[in-house]
Amino acid sequence: MEPAEAEFLAEKELVTIVPNFSLDRIHLGDLGPFNPGLPVEVPVWLAINLKQRQKCRLIPPEWMDVEKLAEIRDQERKEDTFTPMPSPYYMELTKLLLNYASDNIPKADEIRTLVKDTWDTRMAKLRLSADSFVRQQEAHAKLDNLTLMEINTIGTFLTQALDHMYKLRTNLQPGESAQSQDF
Amino acid sequence: DSDGGSEELVLTPAQLIRSLEQAWLNEKFAPELLESKPEIIECVVEQLDHMEANLKRAKTGDLKVSVHRMEIERIRYVLSSYLRCRLVKIEKFFPHVLEKEKSQAEGEPSILSPEEFAFAKEYMANTETYLKNVALKHMPPNLQKVALLKSVPKPNLDSFVFLRVLERQENILVEPETDEQREYTIDLEEGSQHLIRYKTIAPLVASGAVQLI
């Protein structure tokens, strides 16, 4: 999956905006109604678009706050395992919201750094786990607290590596069912 | 707004799109071609047509128009990506896909839609003609046949996949990787995420109990 596709999925998450226009309810997504000054929840893709057209102000999600994120980062650094993240799309949402609406987000730069630090710690742990998974030839792993973007970043490489290992291993055993395709 | 005509599945538009996205992700990450989902495709296409029609009638410049247009584009993207993903697999595994479709029992779901089936057959015929004209007819008479089923690689069902559990499952067998290991069973809790071989959980993907990610 391309990172852009992971972002595409993340864009469906809901975020609160304060519109400066009015519009009645829109079907399909059950969006709106929109009234000036009244907060309403919309998917991120719409929020970003409206913001770009200067039709709203974005309210950062509750977790996008310096103290909260510092706590999360510290927790992540302390533990060997993965801590649950405040949003399954924390990375994509941070990037999108800080890119398009940093003026609506207090201490945007600090937030960016904190999220990046947390990401880096988690990716380092992920590389270690992946390495140990391959080395010990595990057949199964439980990855509850990993987010899609993290899985996606290492996913293709890891599954391909495991496939190669498997092929090498099964070819060592002679007389296996004639599955080998050596064309 | 849209109720469509005769829906056997009574899904809200939002649920329909959710099903499409699930089918899309599963198809993307599964090593083999999954069952075709004609009900979902038909309903999505109908939904899109309906939305397009609505748009034509609305006044331009209306904010609603651009929001609907964006929604339509997003749905279209998922639909196209899903169909394209299937075509890639059909081209990659064409003899096996056709073989599997032929051997599906009565009442078992199809792997290919009628259009995909026609495409696969044509692709096979074209490949055979191509190989014959470019190489085979110049070979000695006893070497002029190619067994496509044997030469075209099969999908690797032993690939590892990532999944999220939608419905709790008990006692899923995990086969050992090496001779020294023993097999063991695990329970899949709802909402948990796992990395495991595709083969073991293939039926769970088909039944919708797990979602590939």
UniProtKB/TrEMBL annotation, chain A:
Chain ranges of the DNA replication complex GINS protein PSF2 N-terminal domain: 3-59
Major subcellular location class: nucleus
Domain of life: Eukaryota
Signal peptide annotation: none
Keywords: DNA replication, Nucleus
InterPro entries reported in the protein's UniProt record: GINS_A, GINS_bundle-like_dom_sf, GINS_Psf2, PSF2_N
GO annotation, biological process: DNA replication; double-strand break repair via break-induced replication
Entries under Pfam families matching the protein: PSF2_N, Sld5
SUPFAM superfamilies: GINS helical bundle-like (SSF158573), PriA/YqbF domain (SSF160059)
Subcellular location: Nucleus
Chain ranges of the GINS subunit domain: 63-167
GO cellular component, one term: CMG complex
Role description: Required for correct functioning of the GINS complex, a complex that plays an essential role in the initiation of DNA replication, and progression of DNA replication forks. GINS complex is a core component of CDC45-MCM-GINS (CMG) helicase, the molecular machine that unwinds template DNA during replication, and around which the replisome is built.
Annotated family: Belongs to the GINS2/PSF2 family.
Stated name of the protein: GINS complex subunit 2
Lineage: Eukaryota, Metazoa, Chordata, Craniata, Vertebrata
Gene: Gins2
From TrEMBL, chain B:
Organism the protein comes from: Anseranas semipalmata (Magpie goose)
One term under GO cellular component: GINS complex
Main location: nucleus
Span of domain GINS subunit: 63-134
Subcellular location: Chromosome; Nucleus
Annotated ranges, domain DNA replication complex GINS protein SLD5 C-terminal: 155-213
N-terminal signal peptide: none
GO BP terms, alphabetized: DNA-templated DNA replication; double-strand break repair via break-induced replication
Designated name of the protein: DNA replication complex GINS protein SLD5
Pfam families: Sld5, SLD5_C
Annotated keywords: Chromosome, DNA replication, Nucleus
Family: Belongs to the GINS4/SLD5 family.
Keyword Nucleus: yes
Domain of life: Eukaryota
